[in-house]
Input
Amino acid sequence: MSQEVRRYRTDEEVDFVIVGSGAAGGVLAKELSTAGFSVVVLEQGPYLRPYQFAHDELGDFFTGGLIGTLADHPHSWRQRPEDEAVPASLMPQLFYAKAVGGSSLHFAANYWRFRPVDFRERSLLGPISGSSLVDWPLTYEELEPYYTKVDWEVGVSGAPGPGDPARSRPYPTPPMHTKSAGMLMARGARALGWTSAPAPVAILSRPHNGRAACINCGYCWGHGCEVGAKSSTLASMIPVAEATGNCEIRDRSVVHRIEVDARDRVRRVVYLDPDGVEQGQRAKAVVLAANGAETPRLLFLSETSRHPDGLANSSGKVGKNLMFNTNVGTIGVFPEPLNEYKGIKASQVVMDFYDTDPARGFYGGGGIDARSSVGHLFFAMFEGLHPDEPSWGPEFKSRMARTYTRHASFAGHGTSLPRERNTISLDPELKDAWGRAAVRVTYEDHPDDIALMRFLQARALDLLEAAGAEEAWGPPVGTQTISAHFLGTCRMGDDPAESVVDRYHRSHDIPNLFICDGSSLVTSGRGQPTMTIQALAFRAGEHIAGFARRGEI
Amino acid sequence: MLGGAWLLGLEPAFEAAGHHARRALAQGLPARVLTPRETLDLEAVSAVMIPTDDTPGAREAGVVHFIDRALETFFAPYLPPVRGWLARLQDRVRDNHDGLDGFADLSEATQADVLREMEAEGGAFGLVRILVMLGMFSHPDHGGNRDQVGWRLLGYETAPAYQPPFGYYDAPGREGEP
Output
């Protein structure tokens, strides 16, 4: 940025402090600053520039990169509330980026809209044992204009597919090139009498909004985009926010506490600056957009004698109903090279199993996309290993040489049922590099989620076989122990006893505290939540700006 | 080149270790954290896992130098388990093979048998295997995958950008194929 960037003093009361600059925080920063409000965005990670992003799988997954190190960001994990949580080692189990742009920097950019059914499945299906499934206080129709804003302002490439919900405007840019795995998926779907469509992605197939088109470098998932073609908030929203002159992005600012006064109003956000010195930014209102793991953590860290269970938690729902989205992989090997490491991650989708079908005997549905392995390292370490073949030695070596360029991964992505027992909480002992209590995850997939994963994996294997794969397999399905999606932990609802925020993302307990990110989601959707998180953020930004104009915060 | 890591303060460690690994390879210098015996045995382990045949293997990729420098820097917490595993490996060789001092001294066929036994026992075998894979296939800047021999093995053609068609099935005219 060549222009002067606005700086605010910490003792100056700004209109909004936004905690987090990712998918939701970036949109809110843009919406509130262009509406004329003064905004300070506090981001715990550094302000990286696109030229600093590297084509380096080891660097980005194992040694810090965008996600930080486990030494700085420890966390612990257990399946059931009665288990002892074990600290993560070797690789993070909570997988999210710590940098300006948040996880929109390193996502694969699959941008599936929710469908109308996602908002009212509790009404359609009735109660489900072992789940706290409820309807949204919103409908698809209410959210549709904001999905369209995401398409055009953030930048989504695609083409309408079978079963897609109604849209008020076409995609701004045509779909990305259909890669070999996508062509094979389409072939398999035709053979089975199913349908497939180009995958909608937040990656530009053509220049749009002054940004460049994708160069097919292949480093999308887990990596930052050095040409800004992937529609991270760093590429799409932050520059617009900064250009208003009203918005300061304050990086390496690690928030410890949201301070409330005796009248239960937020006054200040307390954080450690890059030198480790405690600072407090005064604000008229605060928007938490730190992601579905960090947001409940901050609410817990902000407990006071008047709010002993954490801020905004009179319902007791903060941190509960954690949903990851079900996720299941397969590998198929074909006679000729695909070279899936080139280009975007997923280029084709099959959505024939989107809806819950009672005949299947379990709740849930999802989509299957045609993609590559995470990368060459993951292929050699895990994904490319055939369950009946050695994982080292001469046979392993020749298998790697034969299969890496010839593999496709058809992956299932689907619903997770909300369960109160699946939570984000504070680890009682583990502390991060800034002295904050670390996140503790408690997560066990609902039996219906496990059944859905088995089902989607079987359908993905059907597709690989029908597409002509020489061999195809999937790893064993079990409860998930790693995730990049953290949903539902401050869920939205009309009833203050059953939810954390209202339909406008205002917390039920603290009138000038808003929460908008993955934590707001009531249901998980079919596996690709970011599009909906950003549609909610555009809608929240509009309403919050209205409240501010009318003196209602 | 390692932009993200640089800003998180890791670049000096990477750079020092990367340079160390290259220098060690070029000059035959001893490893930094591994003892000479550990270095010999671990290199032999890596060469059994990814052998040299008509194409280069772990030995040519400099996997052991990658691991040495990784255990000195960003994977320092894994030095104790790797060291403990190598000690058990050496014990096993000494106990069962009179007069031999370590894994590297065994014949190749025996090495593979011993490694299968160690795999069955679990422990840090999985960690060692992952370190070997990282050394073989990660970016050469990290000290392994020397001359991109790992990437060449995979058929991973590295370029900053690509043009479609990327493979066989997305070439024009293939849509109609059964």
